[in-house]
């Protein structure tokens, strides 16, 4: 390991993710195992057998009085903090517009969700998928990120040109590539939007697999590095997520028990991380 790599690892370790209620800081490779399971023991077994091969930096609203973001020193990452805060606000503003469109599509008042998402309880995740040998990805259950749905209302995904994101077709159950399109944003529906809409809008099951590898020997290859940014849009933590009035009726009973945003998301995060 070079001196630069050692310094980078040291700086990252000082910003380490600590608590699912905070959900802020640096997550090292192997600490997270995303899955559809909510059973902590099952997830622990999956993580030990095939952890997700990625690292990330988690950023929340910066004015929170209880949970603080973990920022690098300005001298270590010039303008990083302000750039991320500006981007966070831009993504929130886009979230508001998309949720207004969804409200209209569900026969609700256009501003129905405004007061339910205005506290900006979101999570900005900067993701890095290092190069990895293809023989490791061929191991049972291994992936850059396992199949899962996201937890909140929407996810705004910004990806580079490498590729690897796949989404499941809900009708055929087969995965198909969500190939990068320059200048576009991938928008995924999340679990809480599915619960709110009684599955009128289903959460999107997706995964990240290895793109075509560069051959390094007759039997082995290595995948390229991949970077992406995911903005996980969430309702206010105190918001009760229960079936919307336009999404139930005779013969269409609510499928999910009411739950607050905080109860659902913190519960999922507690099981997902070490």
From TrEMBL:
Annotated signal peptide: none
Entry keyword annotation includes Acyltransferase: no
Gene3D superfamilies: B-lactam Antibiotic, Isopenicillin N Synthase, Chain
Residue ranges constituting the Fe2OG dioxygenase domain according to the UniProt record: 120-235
GO molecular function, one term: oxidoreductase activity
UniProt key word Oxidoreductase: yes
Taxonomy, superkingdom: Eukaryota
Keywords, sorted A to Z: Iron, Metal-binding, Oxidoreductase
InterPro entries: IPNS-like_FE2OG_OXY (IPR044861), IPNS-like_sf (IPR027443), Iron_ascorbate_oxido_reductase (IPR050231), Oxoglu/Fe-dep_dioxygenase_dom (IPR005123)
Similarity comment: Belongs to the iron/ascorbate-dependent oxidoreductase family.
PANTHER family membership: 2-OXOGLUTARATE (2OG) AND FE(II)-DEPENDENT OXYGENASE SUPERFAMILY PROTEIN-RELATED
Protein name according to UniProt: Fe2OG dioxygenase domain-containing protein
Source organism: Hermanssonia centrifuga
